Amino acid sequence: MPDDAQVLELAQGVVKPKAPDLDSELGVLHNLPFSGTDWGLPNPNPVPIEDIQKMRRTDGHIRALIRLLTLPIISSVADSTYVPAEGGEAEAEFIEKVFTLPEQAEAGA
Hints:
With 109 residues, the protein is an all-alpha fold. The protein has a domain at 45-102. The protein contains 4 helices and no strands. α2 crosses α3 (60-77).
């Protein structure tokens, strides 16, 4: 039975590393955000609103992404004052409530 040194010597003689191919690029074959169609454009098939709402309720990654996108907007308008246009007091009050009231739980969620 050969010892470890002999096995290592035999293996080094058999296993030869492949020379790197310097004319090719490592990585994926597609530009991932745009790999949905043949021409590199985003996938045009829309996701139904019902699926987006379900993902928002059940998927933590989607909730985190929505917070990432909305919290800077909400925080930037949190201390704002809303000056209504002529006859637009109700609209200004609605906008203020949308941006300042806490998020309400959905029915059936």
